[in-house]
Amino acid sequence: MEGCRRCGEPRTGEVPGHCTHCGLTERVSAREFLWWLVDGPSYVPVAEGDPDPLRWEEYPALRQGARERTGQDEAVMIARGGVRGTRNEAVFVAWSFDFLGGSMGSVVGETICRAYEYAAEEGLPIVLMPSTGGARMHEGMASLVQMAATTAAAATHASKRLLQIAVLCDPTTGGVFASHANLADIIVAESGATIGFAGPRVARALTGGHLPEGSHTARGALAAGLVDAVVKRPDLPAYLRALIDWAAPYEPMPVAPVNGAGAAPATAWEAIERSRSDERPRAREFLDGLDVATELHGDRAGLDDPTIRVALAHLEGRPLIVIAMDRDRNEARITPAGYRKAWRGLRLADQLGIPAVTLIDTPGADASAPSEAGGVAHHIARTFADMLRTRTTLVSVVIGEGGSGGALALAVADRFLMQENATFSVIAPEGAAAILHRDASRAPEVAEQLKPDARTLHALGVADELIPEPPGEEIEAVWSVVARHLDELAARPTPARLAARRNKWRHPLPT
């Protein structure tokens, strides 16, 4: 029995390439990966074509050696089937690094394109598992243009509102990483994988310098917001199964209504204090009340603002995307990176036709110098626009404090709901007191003038409904009301619902 190259212990267990003793995960062939991951896979043939467009002298012998070594016709294999334990199928594309570094030549590119097109025709999600050094140099531009070809094929698949997942294996670099693999809706990395546009050796050669610790690693990519998770190979089937099941057709189940309410706040300032109270359920508790498949991480531009949480979840059978403000982080003041993460959630909801719910609990956008330099005002404006044009159903719930335009940008939904002890204000009472009286201590007095409490906003017609807060059942009450609105909105044709949303916010104060 082959031993682990790090600890020397014999390989045991059913997970290919994974050492149960030290946790090292090594490269495996595409065939071995697919046989382990997919129940009864049916294989799609590799595309035909000219495998040697430049007539590179040594290339035919290299390809023949790769075929003999791997038992494959090319660097990729395509299979259809369900991840172990689920009947919901997907199309899987797996790479073998031992076949010329998993490089993407013209035949490989055409095979990947056909995989996207086959998945689109069959109405199936696609799962990519690249292990590649990028473009195949022996084919020159015939290889490089496959970046455009595979991107076009990915766009065709995406136009069918189907899920795309990429599992970045060791290594994932070059033209594959910089084209279709980086366009997947969900991108995760295998633990220990090397990841980057240029591989570490090329990066050092081009920059002439030392790479910082964590560069080109799965963990470094997660910290930089470039991947959504780092997954150990033994955990990969469960992770993929949850995602594929989340995107599958569903039958909603009824949600029991919650009756009763707590005592109403006596004053506007009391409402402010209740909305800010540490005793209120926050985003994490609301997400705990759902069946969460995974969360998105990062803005794909080098940052991950933890203030915004984007969860792919089920509410009693209903798939939804929840964009929640985590008040435990940065007082929930949203940075440009946070808005960019929210955009990812909105785009995915729009792409797949899955409803989105925003949970509002923030005093407003981050006003620091870095956020100003990062264009926070532009990000707020674009979020307004994205919310108003997103085709899928949108429901917004204020679960705490809503502050200024930074909060309202993520609230302009088909339905705008408020918990009965939530508040929403043009500015925090302390800020208004400082502006009007140059004395922030007069905030309670100014709050009575601002009237940010939920009952006033409902009376004004801004809030569509108040959600009761029966003690101990606040979260259940919110999800019960949200489910009712999701079901009501689902019955409306998309053009009519979208027109109604824009009209609602074009005339936010009924006459």
Mean pLDDT: 93
* Assembly state (oligomeric): single chain
Indicate the overall shape: elongated
The share of residues in helices is 25-40%
Strand content: 15-25%
The largest sheet, given as strand count, sense and whether it forms a barrel, is: 8 strands, mixed
The end-to-end span amounts to 79 Å
Q: How many DSSP-defined strands?
A: 17
Low-pLDDT residue spans: none
User: Which structural class best describes the helix and strand composition?
Assistant: alpha/beta
Using the CA coordinates, give the radius of gyration: 26 Å
Total helical elements: 20
Task: Provide key terms for this protein.
single chain; 511 residues; alpha/beta; eight-stranded mixed β-sheet; seven-stranded mixed β-sheet; 20 helices; 18% strand; elongated
